[in-house]
Design goal:
The complex is a heterodimer of chains A (about 400) and B (about 775). Chain A is built from 20 helices and seven strands. Chain A is of the alpha/beta class. The radius of gyration of chain A is 21 Å and the shape is globular. Classes of the chains: A alpha/beta (about 400), B alpha/beta (about 775). Chains A and B meet through helix 4, helix 10, helix 11, helix 18 and helix 19 of A and helix 22 and helix 23 of B.
Chain lengths: ~400, ~775
């Protein structure tokens, strides 16, 4: 194992590390880590050093290995072009392969367990109950809307009083208005993104296989996503792991931006002040920064504001892959809400259901001296309102 | 029920099941015999008279006797002293003893002798009776030798029957006899080889509880006058036997203790016209009970304090009077008995003097060459902790060791002797470990302003003229209402009133475990699982008393702790805990974290279930433990996981399911402290691990041990059902059922029905084909 791991580490360019410490200086975990609780500062550089020195056992049991948000900020700032988050992923999957499970799964691992159950071959999921009669979908067509785990989230996070499915409903409504009746897969499975970053590559691959074969059979040309992580899995992780899809893969914000540019979609100005939170998977992972902004600011320049950290510099929503959701995560989330509030926005637009859930969770339990009074909504939901 | 302490712990015990901590009250600590005073007073206040009496009997076999004449050191330490006046503890004890006489229940049965050893007890006073009572219960053969015609010792020869009716003494001694103790009366042991002879006659040990039956001498001139002077012991004996001398018109009693007062009151009843009592002590210093002195005075006894006899005046061998001198102090500056007198003297005419200044051990019965060591005070020399004498296998106690003392002290000595004899016969060192040593200081402080004053009940008594010339009992005892009202005055010092009625009445196995000092104890509820828990996970072990049986038990620390790195301070745990066991404390300027108070937490696990980041970590019912359970899935069988609540009583396993614990079905039972601990992840993890179905059972909402656990479980079940539906799993794979704790049949039925309804293993949506990575 250790020789393949060493090979993988080489591929990440880790040996080129100059120990300049830029990775640590831009890392949100390092910045917001509450020192008193863990005892040490979070240091991506030190973790990399341990990996280079093959101090694997130590690393696998290190809480920090599982605290990395894989937000990819370090990658972008590294002068040696080290693929830092790939390194983290290799280490995690190696740890998982050797039976070490040190990531602290939130909700006792319920969400991971759900994903794993979805690898059962002949499941007949009832996952389209939410599609109301006013929404037009088809079983046959060239545009597929990949719903993702939104139905599960709505059932699971009842206490948060949120509707992740609102993004899906809005997206379909928009598509309908533009004359598109999207295909929805009845036996869609979890994309496996979170399991991949948990280190469970094995299960990830099985889910990928299901999804890819289901889509291949359907003869789809375009796949639209509201979830930045699903898009990321399909666009990046699937091909990298041998599950390429020929269809065109787009985030809803990209689709909307295209329609606006083509003059097929005209939006009214917003009656609320807006700001936008970049999901790591959409922004730094896939380089999609402009399209969501184009949608939000279209005919709406005076109502759209950027946060202190945005685009490439954007601050992560604090939790990744339902793991190590902790006091540091909360500190990051509070900071992000502060940044949103500072813009004067009334609505924080998101392009990923995970960001939405994490930020709403924190919004429910903010310090008593804070009053954010801000809505956190998906970009499609906001757009649909501006179409009416 | 047996409440003896058989389990101790070195560290603080698992507090999960702890319902309360007991601490001895000042009254209990003050009782030489160790009677749990607080407990029986508490039971009396709730009208549980027979149970109260049972508590008394655990440490005192003579409740009716002590209820009348005990010196009740308990009352002297009663916390009510700081507010008004002490609870009438002694009279309450008398009340419950009388209650049994009037409401006879089951009679004591003879105890089978299970030990081959026989024990000889010399003397049938309170020390001998107590030792006999303890030893017969341990299975020994016990024989008491009594020199007089009737058993009871000082109880009948020393205490007048108007204070302690003889039928009360007889009832309580008969109860001890009924257990199998043989009492041989008119059987005086005497001679220097008497003890050796007993040993060769088949007795393995001897307990000398011969009492102090020789009146102390005044040691003043004229004491040896042949007519007109008698000591109190002889006087009392003669009265008892009906051979009292003619006392004439005027009697002088010398002494200031209870015996002197008894003697003076007795003298009035056997014909004396006038009784003058003289004592060294001032009125306030008199050792006799104040209420006894008052009664004596009411009956006509004239008390003359601060006078010491100088000489007995006589003519022709008959007493004519006593010369007294004025005593100005009884004790010297160092507290020793060393009376000082002034020059003042007075002569008092009388034809009869009764001295009542104390009693001594009468050693004549042993002859001159006995081998036992004797103290300077003319008592048997013993080790005070074990009561062993200088002769191996021979123990001594009661007045024969203490000098003339009280009944309750004699009872205490009887217990010590019995314990030592038991250890001696089991070849254990006589000296016990420290925790059974002397009681600790009482630290409880009453706040007088917090309690309302209330009047102590008065003892109903026969009117003065009625007492003339008869020995009918003066005090007539409380009625039920008075007893309950008086017992209700008790402040219940300490955290628990120690009535322990919770223990036998609770269907949930309540147990009492003593603390390391032997003084305080904890009341626990022991969920069924803990009798058979996997020892590998348990830091505690030992045995404890539950109901009738002593069961080995292993306790686990179940209180969850908060991982301070993971906790986000959302406060969901605070919201869910009705016990207020969780609080948020500031960690950073903006973020608080949860803190669990171990003393309040009852380990239901509901907070663990609602904790989103899984930061509250239970020490036992955690993921690792659960995964280990799930590892017992059998890929060749139908696997069924059944979640149950510890308190539900549905801890039935294995044999109750003959149809399924067979070749084709594997049932895994998972017992939580409460169904509130349930998380939907448990169901999905079970399915991941190869379960074909998961059944969750809980109490009904109204029956939940923790009140709020079931409602949390219901929420989780609702979420789980939705997710099961979304996943497309057969809804029969997951079921939830509320079962009454008292209805194990319903539980068995629910499990059976669930298994029968399960889809077959070959169904296409079966997830048992999933292998976890």
């Amino acid at each position: 194992m250790s020789s393949t791991l060493t090979e993988s580490i080489k591929k990440t360019n880790a040996y080129a590390c100059l120990e300049c410490g830029k990775c640590t200086s831009v890392c949100p975990v390092a910045l917001f880590r509450y020192n008193g609780s863990v005892g040490t500062r979070f240091s991506p550089r030190m973790m990399l050093t341990k990996a280079v020195r093959r101090n694997y056992d130590d690393l696998f049991h290190d809480y920090d290995l599982w605290s990395c948000l894989t937000c990819r900020k370090c990658d972008l700032y590294c002068p040696s072009n080290i693929h830092y988050i790939d390194l983290i992923q290799f280490l995690r999957s190696s740890a998982t392969d050797s039976g070490i499970d040190c990531g602290k799964c939130s909700h006792s691992g319920a969400l991971q367990a759900l994903s794993r159950i979805m690898t059962a071959k002949d499941l007949k999921p009832n996952r389209l109950d939410w599609v109301t009669e006013d929404l037009e979908i088809s079983t046959d067509g060239d545009t597929l809307y990949f719903v993702g785990c939104a139905p599960y989230f709505d059932a699971f996070f009842t206490d948060l009083d949120l509707s992740v499915l609102d993004a899906a409903r809005s997206s379909i409504a928009i598509l309908n208005k533009l004359g598109i009746s999207p295909v929805l897969l009845a036996d869609e499975r979890c994309c496996g993104h979170d399991l991949f970053w948990n280190g469970d590559v094995e299960t990830f691959k099985r889910l990928a296989e299901y999804n890819v074969s289901a889509i291949k059979n359907a003869g789809i040309k375009t796949i639209l996503f509201s979830c930045a992580e699903c898009l990321n899995a399909f666009k990046k992780l699937y091909p990298e792991n041998g599950f390429a899809i020929k269809a065109e893969l787009k985030h809803m914000s990209q689709f909307l931006a295209e329609k606006i540019s083509a003059g097929e979609l005209e939006l009214a100005s917003s009656d609320k002040e807006l700001t936008y939170h970049d999901p790591c998977r959409l922004g730094r992972h896939l380089g999609i920064y402009d399209e969501p902004r184009q949608v939000l600011s279209s005919n709406n320049d005076s109502h759209f504001y950027e946060m202190k950290q945005s685009g490439k510099r954007s601050l992560c929503c604090g939790v990744s892959a339902w793991m190590n959701c902790d006091i540091t995560a909360k500190a990051i989330q509070i900071e992000r809400l502060n940044q949103a509030k500072e813009t004067g926005a009334e609505v924080l637009a998101v392009a990923c259901p995970k960001c939405q859930i994490h930020l709403i969770c924190t919004l429910k339990n903010v310090p008593s001296n804070k009053n954010y009074d801000i809505e956190i909504r998906d970009i499609s939901s906001i757009t649909l309102e501006r179409m009416e | 029920m047996n409440r003896s302490n058989t389990f101790t712990f070195q560290n603080k015990p698992d507090q999960l099941y702890q319902l309360g901590i007991t601490e001895p009250s000042p009254c209990t600590l003050a009782c030489p015999a160790g009677v749990n005073v607080k407990s029986y007073v508490s039971l009396i206040s709730s009208g549980r008279f027979q149970e109260a009496l049972n508590v008394v009997r655990e440490r005192n076999p003579l409740p009716g006797i002590c209820g009348r004449i005990c010196s009740h050191p308990c009352e002297a330490t009663c916390s009510r002293n700081e507010i008004d006046s002490p609870v009438a503890i002694s009279w309450l004890k008398r009340f419950v003893a009388d209650y049994e006489l009037n409401h006879p229940g089951t009679k004591p049965k003879k105890i089978k002798q299970t030990r081959k050893e026989n024990i000889a007890i010399i003397g049938s006073g309170p020390a001998g009776l107590t030792a006999a009572n303890d030893l017969i219960r341990l299975g020994y053969g016990v024989t008491i030798f009594e020199a007089l015609q009737k058993p009871g010792g000082m109880l009948i020869t020393g205490i007048p029957s108007f204070r302690l009716p003889r039928d009360i003494v007889k009832v309580e001694i008969d109860a001890i006899k009924a257990l199998g103790v043989k009492i041989k009366t008119n059987n005086k042991i005497k001679g220097k080889d008497a003890i050796k002879k007993l040993m060769s006659d088949g007795f393995d040990t001897v307990f000398l509880a011969v009492g102090a039956h020789k009146g102390k001498k005044l040691r003043i001139p004229g004491e040896d006058t042949s007519r007109g002077i008698i000591n109190c012991v002889d006087f009392s004996n003669q009265v008892h036997l009906g051979t009292a001398p003619n006392l004439g018109k005027k009697v002088i009693v010398i002494g200031g203790g209870n015996v002197a007062i008894d003697t003076a009151r007795t003298a009035l009843r056997v014909g004396a016209q006038e009784v003058q009592l003289y004592c060294l002590e001032s009125r306030k210093e008199m050792p006799a009970f104040e209420h006894e002195i008052e009664q004596a005075e009411k009956e006509g006894v004239v008390v003359n304090p601060s006078w010491g006899p100088k000489q007995i005046l006589s003519r022709n061998g008959s007493v004519t009077g006593v010369e007294f001198r004025n005593c100005i102090s009884v004790f010297d500056s160092e507290g020793r008995f060393n009376p000082a007198y002034s020059e003042e003297t007075k002569c008092v005419n009388t034809e009869m003097v009764i001295s009542a200044i104390g009693q001594d051990l009468d050693l004549d019965f042993l002859g001159k060459d006995h081998k036992l060591k004797i103290t300077k005070r003319n008592t048997f020399e013993v080790d005070k902790d074990t009561l062993s004498t200088s002769m191996n296998g021979v123990f001594a106690g009661g007045d024969a060791v203490l000098g003339a003392s009280t009944v309750i002290d004699a009872i205490a000595q009887g217990h010590i002797a019995a314990r030592s004899i038991h250890r001696y016969l089991n070849h254990k060192p006589l000296q016990q470990d420290k925790r059974t040593g002397s009681p600790q200081e009482w630290e409880f402080k009453v706040e007088p302003t917090l309690h309302e004053k209330s009047k102590r009940a008065t003892m109903p008594m026969m009117d003065i003229p009625g007492r003339k010339n008869n020995f009918t009992e003066v005090e007539s005892g409380f009625d039920e209402a008075t007893a309950i009202a008086e017992a209700s005055r008790c402040l219940r010092c300490g955290p628990c009133s120690e009535c322990f009625i919770c223990m036998p009445e609770c269907g949930k196995e309540v147990a009492l475990i003593s603390g390391p000092n032997g003084q305080e104890a904890s009341v626990f509820r022991i969920p069924p699982l803990y009798k058979t828990l996997d020892p590998a996970h348990s830091p505690w072990d030992g045995s404890l008393v539950t109901g009738k049986n002593i069961v080995p038990v292993r306790l686990n620390a179940l209180i969850p702790f908060v991982n301070e790195t993971l906790c986000r301070g959302c406060g969901d745990c605070v919201d869910v805990c009705d016990y207020d066991a969780v609080k948020l404390i500031p960690k950073t300027d903006e973020i608080s974290i949860a803190k669990i108070n171990d003393d309040i937490c009852r380990a239901c696990g509901t907070c663990v279930a609602v904790c989103s980041p899984s930061a509250i970590i239970p020490r036992y019912f955690n993921q690792v433990w659960l995964d280990q359970k799930f590892n017992a899935m059998d890929p060749n069988k139908k696997n069924v996981v059944v979640f149950t609540c510890q308190w539900n009583g549905s801890h039935i396993e294995g044999a109750a399911f003959p149809d399924f614990q067979s070749k084709n079905t594997n049932i895994l039972f998972v017992h939580f402290m409460c169904s509130g601990r349930l998380e939907s992840s448990f169901i999905f993890r079970a399915l991941n691990k190869g379960a074909d179905g998961v059944l969750v059972t809980s109490c009904s909402a109204g029956e939940c041990h923790y009140d709020f656990g079931v409602s949390q479980a219901q929420k989780t079940v609702k979420t789980t059902r939705q997710l099961i539906h979304l996943l497309g799993l057969d809804s029969k794979r997951f079921a939830y059922s509320q079962i009454l704790g008292a209805d194990p049949e319903a539980f068995i039925q629910a499990v059976n029905e669930f298994i029968k309804a399960l889809p077959s293993k070959d169904q296409p949506e079966s997830v048992s084909k999933i292998n976890e990575p």
